[in-house]
Amino acid sequence: MSAWWALAVLIASLAANAESTIIVRPLTQLTQTKAIFLSDVADFHGVEKSLITQLGSIKLAEGPQAGDKIEFSGSAISAALRAHRAWSSMTIRPNVVIPSKIYVENLGEQISEAALRMEIIERCQGQCACRIELSELSLPKMPRLKVATKWRIRFPAMPAKGSFNLALELIDGDSNAQTLWLRGRVAHFKSAPVTTRQMQFGERVQPSDYSIQERDVTFARDSIPDENQLVGRKIRQAVPANEILFVGNLELEKALRRGDQVKMSVGEESWEVVLMGVAEQDGVIGDTVKIRNPQSNQIVSAVVTGRGEVKIQ
After folding, report:
1. What is the pLDDT of residues 261-313, one digit of tens each?
2. Cβ proximity of 289 and 300 under 8 Å
3. Does the domain at residues 261-312 carry the CATH identifier 2.30.30.760?
4. Measuring CA to CA, which residue among 160, 155, 115, 106 is closest to residue 139?
5. Measuring CA to CA, which residue among 196, 194, 198 is closest to residue 214?
6. Which whole-number Å values give the CA distances from 238 to 209, 211, 250, in the listed order?
7. Where are the domains of the chain?
8. Cα 164 vs. chain centroid, distance in angstroms?
9. Terminal CA-to-CA distance of the chain, rounded, Å?
10. In the beta sheet, which residues pair with residue 72?
């Protein structure tokens, strides 16, 4: 029977008999440097709170520095316990389980997975008008860090999208740098119009033909139209039910045709002048077309902003 198994059996037996017990752990790990007391390395079962306070305050040693480990002998802890005034004055004492060797290890400052996740999500969120979801994150083996160590994640110019490898830089107080790699997957979610039925070529979109839902658009190669750009637009190719309606699914209908009377506007926020002109070219919204002023026959360039409307640049 192994020592660990024997210890587990003994603890279970004592707990079953509801006896007060003090159990010293073989290994205790800390993340900061501090003095080591009995309460740091022992568990108290069925012991009165006042006694826990008194015995737990027994100082064993100064704590190890970051990355270091110290060893206690079971006999040293037993002697410290017997020498305490509260212990010596007791008539009925708790059972005590102490391994022959006890270790206290200082892991040093650690970077939590939660902190890394938050940093990645916040950075990606700032570069995308969408909801970011970090579906996977694989962490490297983290070294023990000095208290003064700083860390940062180096992001590419474009936001992380899909699978990624991001450099995690660790810089200690002596300006020594170390680079580790974070691997994972980022998904982008947006509200998008989703078809409620199969849409056929040439049909015009009606309000009942779609519903706004949040969908994964991580690998979408097309943009999502605004809702005010949907109703009345023709479908340029069949779209199955329960699929996102992208801009590319909608026919680019001409907002003006050559020879149409158009309203020309020019101005800034505080003022605007509106004139009537004649289109010299066909155009869809966003196109730059030539417009003729019928009074002067002057040709100007303007951007199509709506049906029969342009803005002079």
Report:
1. 988 888 877 788 888 989 998 888 778 899 898 888 889 888 888 888 888 87
2. no
3. yes
4. 115
5. 194
6. 13, 17, 10
7. 3-106, 113-188, 190-249, 261-312
8. 13
9. 88
10. 102
Strand 21-24, strand 42-45: pairing: antiparallel
CB 71 within 8 A of CB 99: no
Q: Which residues have a Cβ under 8 Å from the Cβ of 90 and sit 6 or more positions away?
A: 51
Output the CA torsion 257→260→266→270 (10° steps): -100
The answer to whether the Cα torsion of 74, 77, 80, 84 is positive or negative is negative
The pLDDT tens digits of the residues spanning 98-108 come to 999 999 988 76
pLDDT reading at 158 higher than 80: no
| CB of 70 closer than 8 Å to CB of 61 | yes
In this structure, CATH architecture of domain 190-249: Alpha-Beta Complex (3.90)
Domain 3-106 classification at class level: mainly beta
pTM listed for this prediction: 0.52
Work out whether strand 131-138 and strand 177-195 pair parallel, antiparallel, or are unpaired. Answer: antiparallel
Q: How far is CA 27 from the centre of its chain?
A: 33
